[in-house]
């Protein structure tokens, strides 16, 4: 078993840190957690002590550093194929990778106008035309994947492909954004599938652990 260290930013704000963290927790992959405090004068210096990119998250083991959320998740899937971080079916796996990559590289208006804030609630804020267009696309992704793959999976636990996968890890921060900013998924074309998916992710024990960590950190910041 590798000795993994995951370097992450503040749990209230760091969307990219949430992704590999929740994937490792759900998959039962042991790791040591090292925090880097964000929005401080020394944040960059803190991060550079762990990652040559100066960014978090970063996965460290045996002197190696992987500083990108999706690359970290892919690395873990290679290390632990038995944990099934991607769907086993070839088509489902391709669609899961496609959805994950679309999240990884897109939705810039949504990211800018509805930044992740686990603890607070800002209903109606950030509802720009671009952000809502991206939200509509995401609702369509969730709805279609749940109908096509999730509901027909041998083990349907409410996630996009039935059981939790990297695709769910990639969209976990978006679920929190929709909650924080009061996004009405029904008004964006949801037939109930997207809302049920959000509820499943928000009830996930690993997510609840992250959320409690965010609350503690924010309380400590004053």
Describe the structure.
With 222 residues, the protein is of the alpha+beta class. It folds into 2 domains: 79 residues, Glutaredoxin; 117 residues, Glutathione S-transferase Yfyf (Class Pi), Chain A, domain 2 (Up-down Bundle). Helices cover 52% and strands 7% of the residues. The chain is built from 9 helices and 4 strands; from the N terminus they run βαβαββααααααα. Strands 2-1-3-4 form a 4-stranded mixed beta sheet. Helix 1 links the parallel strand 1 and strand 2. Helix 1 runs parallel beside helix 3 and helix 1 packs across helix 9.
Main sheet characteristics: 4 strands, mixed
User: Strands across the major sheet, in which order?
Assistant: 2-1-3-4
Enumerate the spans where pLDDT stays under 50 for 5 or more consecutive residues: none
Architecture per CATH nomenclature, i.e. the level-2 architecture of the largest domain: Up-down Bundle
Q: CATH fold name of the largest domain, please?
A: Glutathione S-transferase Yfyf (Class Pi), Chain A, domain 2
The structural domain count equals 2
What's the CATH first level of the largest domain? Mainly Alpha
Distance between the termini: 39 Å
């Amino acid at each position: 078993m590798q000795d993994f260290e995951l370097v992450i930013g503040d749990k209230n704000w760091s969307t990219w840190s949430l992704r590999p963290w929740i994937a490792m927790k759900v998959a039962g992959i042991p790791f040591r957690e090292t925090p880097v405090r964000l929005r401080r004068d020394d944040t960059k210096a803190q991060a550079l002590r762990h990652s040559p990119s100066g960014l978090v998250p970063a996965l460290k083991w045996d002197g190696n550093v992987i500083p990108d959320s999706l690359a970290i998740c892919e690395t873990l899937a290679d290390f632990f194929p038995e944990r099934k971080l991607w769907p086993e079916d070839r088509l489902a796996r391709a669609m899961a990778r496609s959805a994950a990559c679309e999240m990884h590289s897109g939705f810039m208006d949504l990211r800018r106008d509805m930044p992740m804030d686990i603890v607070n609630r800002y209903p109606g804020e950030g509802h720009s035309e671009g952000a809502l267009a991206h939200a509509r696309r995401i609702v369509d992704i969730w709805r279609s994947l749940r109908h096509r793959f999730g509901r027909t999976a041998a083990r349907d636990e409410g996630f996009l492909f039935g059981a939790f996968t990297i695709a769910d890890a990639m969209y976990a921060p978006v679920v929190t954004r929709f909650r924080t900013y009061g996004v009405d998924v029904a008004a964006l074309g949801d037939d109930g599938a997207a809302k049920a998916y959000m509820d499943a992710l928000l009830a996930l024990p690993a997510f609840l652990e992250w959320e409690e960590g965010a609350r503690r950190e924010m309380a400590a910041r004053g």
